[in-house]
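Table S5 (text form). Sequence records supplied for joint modeling of the two-component complex.
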Amino acid sequence: MEVAVIGVGITRFGEFWEKSYRELITHAGVNAIKDAKIEGDEVQSLYVGSMTPGVFIQQEHIGALVADNVGLSGIPATRVEAACASGGLALRQAYLAIKSGTADVVVAGGVEKMTDVSTEHATVALAGAGDQEWEAFHGATFPALYALMARRHMIEYGTKEEDLAQVAVKNHSNGTLNPNAQFQKAFTLEQVMNSTPVADPLKLLDCSPITDGAAAVILASKEKAKKLCENPVWITASSQATDTLALHDRKSLSQTRASTIAAKNAYESAKLGPNKIDFAEVHDCFTIAELMAIESLGFCELGKSGKFTQDGETSLKGSKPVNTSGGLKAKGHPVGATGIAQAVEATLQLRGEAGKRQVEGAHTGLTHNVGGSGATSVIHIFQKEVD
Amino acid sequence: MGEGLALHWRLKQPRYNLVGTECKACGEKYFPPRNICPQCRRKSQIQPFKFSGNGKIYSYTVVRAAPTGFEFQTPYAIAVIELDEGAKCTAQIVDSDPNKIKNGAKVKMVFRKIMADSESGIIRYGYKFKLA
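The corresponding C-alpha cell record, covering 519 residues in total, follows.
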C-alpha cells in the first residue's frame, strides 16, 4: 500500500462542439487538484493518456500542451498511448513513478476530443487500434472485430444476442444515475435488440459512442497521502499485459488472453481473489467485451457470462456490480480518458460518494481497461483501507 | 490514410499472392508474414511460403457501418479465415450467397480491388475470399 488516489476530477462526457481538447483536460485536471485540496506546486510530474489527437485534432506533443494549459509548465509531462487503454496506462505510469520513489505527487490524466471529425473519419482513426495493414485494410471496423469475437463466443458457449443486449440494458440503467454520463437514458431489451445493425450480431446499442471528455486523478505516496488527505483510496495492484495486435493471430477469439494474464497478476499482487472484488468498472466498448471481461476477471466461469448477466449478478444490486458508472456504453468512451474515468468511479465508490449508484459497503474495486481488440489490458485494484 | 504508394507496393506478394512465411526451425507457418517467428525468435529461420488460398470460415460478420473508403461497399461480409496450411487471416467474403456464409464453410482466395483512396488516388488490390 504505497500509492494512494488523493483527488479526482472529471468532465461531463458527451458531444461538446463548444469545448476544445485543452479546455476538457484543463477542467478535469483543475477539478482533481481542487478535490485533493492541494496546490499545483505540489505536483511533480504528469502523465496523460490520449489515443490519437494527431488524427482527431491534428495535435501532437500532448505532454507539454497539457502541462502548459493547466499551469504546470516546467514539470516532466508525458503522453502515454495504448489505443483505448491509454488512460489506464497513464494511471499505471503515474503509479510506477511513485512506486519507484522518483516522485511523491503525480497527476494521471486522460482526454480525447473525438467529435471534431466525421463518424467515418473517427472509424478510420479507431481502426488504428487494430492491425492497420491486415485488418483495417480489408474494411474491418472495430465493431466488426468485436462482432467476430461475439460470433465465436456464441458458437462456443451458446451465448445469445439477448445476453449481449442485457449488458446494454444494465449499463444504460446505471447511466441514468450518473450525472456525468453521455446518455442518461434507459433502454429496454427490445429497443436494444431492434436497434440498427452495425456489424452482425452487434447493433447500434451494443456499441459505445463517440465521445468528448477528460478525467484526472492525483496520486500520492503513502507518506504524502497521510499528510495531505483524509480519505485516501489505495491502489493495491497495477498490472498490464499484451496479446497479438491482430485478432486472427490468436488461438481463441472468445477469450481475451491479455486480460486473463493481467487479472492473474493483479490478484496476486493485491493478495486477493475475484471473490473479494465488491464492484468493477470493465471495458465495455461493445457489449460482448463486458461478457468476455467478467470471464477473464474470474467473476464467473468461462462461457457463463451471458447467464450471469441475465441473472442480474452484475447489476447495481447484484452480487458483483459491474460498470456502476454506466460503463463506456452509457457514460461514453472518449478513448484516452476512459481508463482514468474508471479510476474516478472506483475512487468515488470507495469514498462512498457515488450518489444514487453507490454500492453499499464497497471496500475493494477493480478497473479493467482494454486497448484495441484486446492487445493491451490494464488492470488496477483499489481499496479503502490499509491494514 | 495510406497515401504512400510504397506502403502498398511493398506488401504486394502477401496481398496479391497470399505469400506468408514459414519458420524452417519449428515448421510453423505464418500469414500475414512475420519477420521473425515469435516462438523461435532469434533462432528463427524465416522463409517465404505461398499459401494455397483454400481455407474455411472461422468467424464472420456483416459490416453495415463502414469507414471512409468502404462506404459504397456496404453491406459487406468480413471473416476470419482458417487457411488449410494453418494460419488465420482477415478478409472480405465476396461473390457468395450471403445465406451460405457460415462458420466452417469452405472458401478460396480471389484477387480483387479492395478500395480506391480517391478518384485520382491509389487503387488498392488484394485478396478476398469466396465460398468454394
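Note: Chain B touches chain A through 34 residues (CB under 8 Å).
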